[in-house]
């Protein structure tokens, strides 16, 4: 969980100056889509989390 939090902070919160809570939600939703479905994760053999579950 700490790695997720660090990635979210570094890749979303630290890179944007948000105008509204709605903007935070929209950018977070897009980031989560990439994080869960596209981005390779070292701990999962370079598979995205959802791909790892589907392969099981």
From TrEMBL:
Integrase catalytic domain ranges (all copies): 2-49
Domain of life of the source: Bacteria
One Pfam family recorded for the sequence: rve_3
SUPFAM superfamilies: Ribonuclease H-like
Single biological process term from Gene Ontology: DNA integration
InterPro entries, per the entry: Integrase_cat-core (IPR001584), RNaseH-like_sf (IPR012337)
Stated name of the protein: Integrase catalytic domain-containing protein
Organism: Pseudoalteromonas rubra
